[in-house]
Design brief:
Blueprint lengths: L2 H12 L3 H30 L2 H8 L2 H13 L11 E8 L5 E9 L2 E6 L7 E6 H10 L4 H5 L4 E4 L1 H10 L7
Helix pairs in contact: 2-4, 2-5, 3-5
């Protein structure tokens, strides 16, 4: 046993650069916010009618929070080099629609309200269906088969979305 070497190794092991600690804290906060949002959505979606889901998550502020959490879960390692826009066009029972764009650039994704003319993929789905699938980390495939969800653009990208944004495969 070399006491000096052991003490030196222990001292080296304790030093963590501030930048690394800040990154760990951001990741932890993002994961926690995402988990809280998904738990709340799961609780709502599990027992609520479409109308109730629309009342709770139909506002721009509630939807912004949902899409910001989605964008914060972006994993560039699963993006296969994708850069561009993904548009979610959410429909309400009264016929109104609201679009949200997640723009991927490099290793980051950001959410904003509105569409994008150059979207690589546009997904049109009723808000209540979208919330139920996202909350349960379920599959959009039954909605596609029922005609309740339509997609325009890169369908290969659609197949990778769950992996890119921290979920399990939706197809």
């Amino acid at each position: 046993i070399n006491e000096d070497a052991e003490l030196a190794a222990a001292r080296r092991g304790r030093h963590v650069p501030l930048r690394d600690l800040a990154g760990q804290a951001r990741r932890s906060a993002g994961e926690s916010a995402s988990q809280r949002m998904q738990a709340a959505a799961r609780a709502l979606a599990g027992r609520a009618t479409d109308g109730r889901i629309e009342r709770v998550l139909g506002s721009a502020a509630a939807q912004r929070a949902l899409f910001v959490v989605m964008a914060s879960g972006f994993d560039a390692g699963n993006a296969a080099g994708f850069e561009g826009c993904i548009v979610y066009d959410l429909g309400m029972s009264n016929g109104s629609r609201r679009s949200w764009t997640i723009q991927v650039r490099g290793r980051r994704a950001a959410a904003r309200q509105g569409g994008a003319a150059d979207a690589a993929l546009t997904i049109r789905v009723p808000l209540a269906d979208f919330v139920r699938v996202v909350a349960d980390a379920g599959s959009f495939l039954p909605l596609v088969l029922d005609g309740r969800l339509t997609m325009d653009g890169d369908l290969g990208l659609a197949n990778r979305l769950a992996d890119m944004f921290g979920g399990r495969s939706t197809f």
